[in-house]
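2024-03-11 09:14:02 DEBUG pipeline.ingest accepted 1 chain
2024-03-11 09:14:02 DEBUG pipeline.ingest length=260
2024-03-11 09:14:03 DEBUG pipeline.predict start
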Amino acid sequence: MLDIHATIRLNNGSAIPRLGLGVWQIPDGQPVIQAVSWALEAGYRHFDTAKIYGNESGVGEAIRNSQIPREKIWITTKLWGGDQFNATSAFEDSRRRLGLDYIDLYLVHWPLPGLVKRTWKQMEKIFIGGKCKAIGVSNHNVRQLKDILSIASVAPAVNQVKCSPFDFNKELYDFCREQHIAFEAYSPLTRGHQLDNKTLQELAEKYHKASSQILIRWALQKDMVVIPKSAQQAHIQQNADVFDFELTDTDVSTLDNLSR
């Protein structure tokens, strides 16, 4: 049975925790510091931020203030589109805001037309520089991944995309698995829009769990990395309480079929 510290081995040998906390839309300062602190107390060791979220400083402060060794915690941040002409400088700015010696995973936040290959070459230089354990992308489709792989000397380790049973791109998922690119799901809880879905409610009742926990468990059983977002302590704890049950193969397939 998996536990909260379970990891997935990336294609470069690094081990990323399978469950993380997303901090999109959590304000910098005390709100994000508190959310990250609650998550650390609940056992989370993976935190996902980005320059555009505006809260890297608070995330870094919470990590530095914890009593947990830095090497036990995984930090992801992202290169914003407007910075893709100077990725190295943007990376160093993010590292400075976080106040950390290194970043575990740096992602290209969005693909920009005509810049996909050029940006990736800059990302490789960042990785080779040694202050980043892994590099990857976010919101990239199969064609864009193929463009990168055609010129890459360092393949993307991760593709982070919006994903839930209601928004599941099987072609992209299968391609990433074939290419040994970890598939990471953001907005796995559908931003709350589908938590009352009848099928989901029936499964929640069957397993004596919340709908949100069923969604997270689905992602874990499909070997995804999953980063539910919450700023509420009760929800942060609840989202981590997904390691004491397992969906049947039939129920996983039922959820697969909810995709529109």
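2024-03-11 09:14:41 DEBUG pipeline.report Strands lie at 7-9, 15-17, 21-22, 46-48, 74-79, 103-108, 132-138, 158-162, 182-186, 225-226.
2024-03-11 09:14:41 DEBUG pipeline.predict end
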